[in-house]
Design a protein that fits this description.
Shape: globular
CATH superfamily of the domain at 11-144 and 166-197 and 250-258: Vaccinia Virus protein VP39
Radius of gyration: 18 Å
Structural class: alpha/beta
Bound molecules: S-adenosylmethionine
Strand order of the largest sheet: 3-2-1-4-5-7-6
Helix content: 25-40%
Number of helices: 9
CATH architecture of the domain at 11-144 and 166-197 and 250-258: 3-Layer(aba) Sandwich
Length: about 260
Amino acid sequence: MSGAPITFDDGAAYEHGMGRWSRLAGDAFLDWLALPRGLAWLDVGCGNGAFTERIVERVAPASVDAIDPSEGQLDYARAQPLAGKVCYRQGDARALPFGDAAFDVATMALVVFFVPDPAQGVSEMVRVVRPGGTVAAYLWDMYGGGLPHAALGLALRDLGVPPPRPPSVEISKPDALRALWRDAGLGAVEMREICVQRRFENFEELWTASAANLRDTLARLSGADVERVRSKMRERLPAADARGRITHGARANAIRGRVPG
Ligand SMILES: C[S@@+](CC[C@H](N)C(=O)[O-])C[C@H]1O[C@@H](n2cnc3c(N)ncnc32)[C@H](O)[C@@H]1O
């Protein structure tokens, strides 16, 4: 048996499973970039806008453009209160619908490993950012157990169901990510690890957030198998505190580089 592929057709489901994690890691990422106010930003693979909105709220941009192939994600983003400050449009990282040197900064938040040809995606970001501008990204440390729902993935594996992986998962290895940035001609390449934590009120809260990320895979299992996955996942979690609360962490690798010229 194998897991269903990861799909992004429902912005509300994405919000439930990943939105809060994305914002936590995104805030740490923006702090690390420490870029000046008043820049033109492009967010590639913006999804439901979870990270894009942090750009609006935290770094006083001159403008924010954002693209994603999924209309389901974009519908959710366009319905949020900050949507008027972002120009959302449908698009693919491999053929960005913008002219050369149109932006000061381009980001991919949790996206590089979903692009079928990451080198093409990064070269497109380099093309649309002006010389001296910044191309940056962060993605979960998939091989180091950094995914927020890693415990659920391992529990599925225990039952013989390989959890789905992004199509370009190899690029989440730090050496591969660094090579991707260097091979794209970016200079001053720097990386850093981002660790974030959340406290869940109880196991049920953590389960529903994790399960929202793998809902298609779980939907293929019998009720009895889902119960087995739940108890396997519980075994893999850190101990709850005296009130049943569980503190759970995730880890990402972030990278930045400067467009030459
Ligand atoms: C894990 S989500 C990240 C969303 C958002 N950036 C965030 O931080 O929450 C990955 C996103 O990549 C998008 N994606 C998948 N393939 C893509 C491609 N070829 N070009 C651009 N985005 C893509 C998906 O539609 C999805 O919204």
